[in-house]
Amino acid sequence: MADIYPVILSGGSGTRLWPLSRGLYPKQFIDFGGETLFGETLERVRALKDTAAPLVICNQTHRFLAASIMQGKGMPPGADADKKGGQAKLILEPVGRNTAPAIAVAAFAALEADKNPVLLVLPSDHKIQPQERFAACVAKAVQAARRGRLVTFGVVPDRPATGYGYIIQGKSEGEAHLIEKFVEKPDEQKAQDLLAKGNCLWNSGMFVFEAAAYLQELERLSPEIYKTSLAAWNSRKTDLDFIRLDEQAFAAIPADSIDYAVMEHTQKASVVPFDAGWHDLGAWESFHEIAPCDAQGNSSVGDVELVDSQNSYVYAASRLVAGIGLKDMLVVESPDAVLVMPQGRGQDVKKLLDALKAKRRSEVDTHLKVYRPWGSYETLVLGPRFQVKRIIVKPGAALSLQLHHHRAEHWVVVNGTAQVTVGEKSVLLCENQSVYIPLGDKHRLFNPGQIDLELIEIQSGTYLGEDDIVRFEDVYGR
Question: DSSP assignment of 119-163, as one string?
Answer without folding.
Answer: EEEEESSEEEE-HHHHHHHHHHHHHHHTTT-EEEEEEPPSS--SS
